Amino acid sequence: MSSCNASLILNLKVKDDALPSESDNLVKQVFGGRVISKLRCCNWKHISDTYEPSVDLSLEIDDANSLSTALESFTKVERIEDEEMKFTCDQCKEKASLDKQLMLDQIPPIFELG
């Protein structure tokens, strides 16, 4: 076996998640953005923000007649009042309904529609 083949085999044995691939980094650089998930306690209005990296958005397009409408639907405030979905607020320490909203925090350099 040539040294090139041996090197290739050794490189293939490295776990995929051990080192980010160049193409993965390129995808994040070109298409990567960040979404904020805002949770607001309906009792005391305490807000909790979670920032999540994103390379895609799942937009509901069935009832949307334009991209603007789909983005408005994606970012609209959703009231969660289901007893099973209530959470304990970090601030007031009570079980509470919550308002949830997703927002675009960082928009990627290229936003592809597919």
From TrEMBL:
MF annotations from Gene Ontology: cysteine-type deubiquitinase activity
Record GO biological process: protein deubiquitination
Keyword Cytoplasm appears in the UniProt entry: no
GO CC terms in record: cytosol; nucleus
Any matching Pfam family: UCH_1
UniProt key word Hydrolase: yes
Record key words, sorted: Hydrolase
USP domain ranges (all copies): 1-114
Gene3D superfamilies: Cysteine proteinases
PANTHER family for the chain: UBIQUITIN CARBOXYL-TERMINAL HYDROLASE, UBIQUITIN CARBOXYL-TERMINAL HYDROLASE 20
Protein name in UniProt: Ubiquitin carboxyl-terminal hydrolase 20-like
